[in-house]
Amino acid sequence: MILNSKSKPIGIFDSGVGGLTVVREIMTTLPHQPLVYFGDCFRAPYGDRNDEELMEFSRRIVRFLLSKDVGAVVVACGTISARIFEQVRAFVPPNIPVYGMLAAGVQAVVETSKNGKIGVIATEGTVNSGTFEHSIVAARPDATVKSVACPLFVPLVEEGWVDNEVADLTAQIYMRELEDSGIDALLLGCTHYPLLSPSIAKALPQGVTLVNPAGYVAQALQRDGFGAEDGDGSYDFYVSGKKERFDKIAKIILPVFDKGSILV
Ligand code: DGL
């Protein structure tokens, strides 16, 4: 049977479990859409990798996803989206749309902030690139942006330490940098961070809204015609390492995770 490209699985990838926060939104918004996920747990974290390494990892993963005959690719990684998105797009065939976290994140936070004072938290690689800041100011010229790198967040999430005192204290220390910034919206610029939302929210002054762009990615897919009701809603998860840990976390955060992941 030849599948319409919108009925083919959507290929989604990240360094590890973080991209599952994007999978969760896509599953909820498009429950019939088949999905193939790749978590590069063996090479996580990506946050302090250089562009050449990120390109090499992305190329390998995209090749793998294309071998699964995907109809779209979602770069569910803020770091790759901020640093090398156009290069990744360039090695995906032009008939396969590619979605990333930058456009979604910028739209989400610009729409959420009322006072134009915007915070961004992300990996070191993302913050050092300045891409989110530039794109936010390009979309909203009156905005002022304060970015903070939170390099310990990804290892905490990969360890499953998302709701303990270490997570709370780590968030408190990072959020001190935003104390006097006057921000009313804080963009979670790394897909791992929504899993730490409770600790981050507790550490922020009242009146700051946390912004997770994942829902905007799901909406963009829906607008482009993905999620047809005749889709088979199958889900396949692949990892490059640390399968047990991945499965444990995936079971907690996804509405459906029945088969476990496959180590490749
Ligand atoms: N979740 C990814 C991101 O959004 C990668 C984080 C990492 O592996 O450091 O940036």
Please describe what this structure looks like:
This protein is an alpha/beta fold. Helices cover 42% and strands 16% of the residues. The strands form two sheets. A six-stranded parallel β-sheet has the order 4-3-1-2-9-10, sandwiched between helices. Helix 10 links the parallel strand 7 and strand 8. Helix 1 packs across helix 11. The longest helix has 17 residues. The model has no long low-confidence stretch (mean pLDDT 96). Bound molecules: D-glutamic acid.
Helix percent band: 40-55%
In order across it, which strands form the biggest sheet? 4-3-1-2-9-10
Taken as a percent bin, the fraction of beta residues is 15-25%
| Helix and strand sequence | EHEHEHHEHEHHEHHEHEHEHE
| Coarse morphology | globular
Main beta sheet strand tally, sense and closure: 6 strands, parallel
Tally of contiguous helical segments: 12
N-end to C-end Cα span? 27 Å
* Unreliable residue runs: none
- SS elements, strand count: 10
| Ions and ligands | D-glutamic acid
- The overall pLDDT average reads 96
* SS content category: alpha/beta
Whole-angstrom Rg: 17 Å
